[in-house]
Amino acid sequence: MIERVYTKRLLEMLAVFPVVAVIGPRQVGKSTLVLSEPIARNRRYVTLDDLTSRTLAEKDPLALVEQAGPLTIDEIQLVPGLLRGIKQQVDKDRSAGRYLITGSADLNSCADLSHVLAGRVGVLPLPPITYFEEHGMQGIPLWAHVLQQRAIDPSIAARSHAESFNWNRLLTGGFPPSLTAQSDSQRTLWLEAFRTTYLERDLRRLSDIGHLAEFARLMELSAARTGQLLNQAELARDAGLSPATAGRYLSILEASFLIQRLAPYYENIGKRLVKSAKLYWKDTGLVCHLLGIRAADLAAHRLKGALFETFVFGEIQALLPLYLPQARFYYLRAHDGLEIDGLIQQGPDLIPFEIKAAQTVTAEDAKSLRRWMSLRRHDGIGFVVYAGTRVQLIGRDIWAIPIHATTGSSL
Predict the structure, then answer these.
(1) Where are the beta strands (DSSP E) in 184-277?
(2) What domains sit in the chain, N to C, each tagged with a CATH number?
């Protein structure tokens, strides 16, 4: 079993909040996490995927939540009325760790959550398994160390660990059943079952979708746009939908934790800035399946760069809260062509980085970073995340960092 790095954070949250919610897409490993030791120790467990448990919870929600002792409720979005019962109990006793709940739909989409559990709940998003977790890497990702320190120690760079990037990882994605499949055919079977179950069961629980074929078409078209600016009007036109319907379908995909929109950086830097969000799918394996991309296609595929960017975005977005909980993630694009793939804001500091789907990078790959640093009179650090193996300086205060390079030991 692949060990998740979120166990420690979940234990910390259970020691602080009366209610902790682990949220993420179906089959991402939420149940496995909450049932693992030491999290599950001395906790009662109820899954609402079980019809009997769900029926009892719907008939008498208080009977379930008022029992003594810490309680874990899996897939609580199936009976959202339980949230009010939890609130009543927490108002009587705010002991830390009383309730651990999981959800496969964004709990903020439950109309009651914002005021029912406000101030009472800590939320832990659980993404697909990261490359860092899959390989049991030691220390922390080198990019995270750079963000923490606003610098890179050459001695750490020299000893940081980086092996050749496994491009097949774009095809497997990070859902545990897909990642651990024993063959391409097994992985394809699982991904198709995931797609079918999402469309025919999960989707109906989230919203009243009258035309599943239309929704499936929008899924495929949006998958082909991962890592790109989101032009909702164009997407709607290509899907044969009204802009309002396309927007609603995208919101449903977002509430299902299948996509994410990355906000642009707005600060005035003396240029006209693009204000559209960028669209990213959370899992490249699902994208490749939806688009029929196979291993033989990947090397020359027109979306190879976008898929690698999506993979890197997912890796950073997944792990960033563990190392810089208050950091904010943006991108920047100006109408004159200046583009920065990522901007990490931590307090007053902004650290820019680029993403390159290449085995080698040069100073030419950092030209956007140099322009940004010049415009901002930025005297900090920038970096390029790429698919190679060497940590190297490619410009003044600009480093090339393999996505899988680590510090090698905890810092």
Answers:
(1) 228-229, 259-262
(2) 7-125 (3.40.50.300), 132-402 (no CATH)
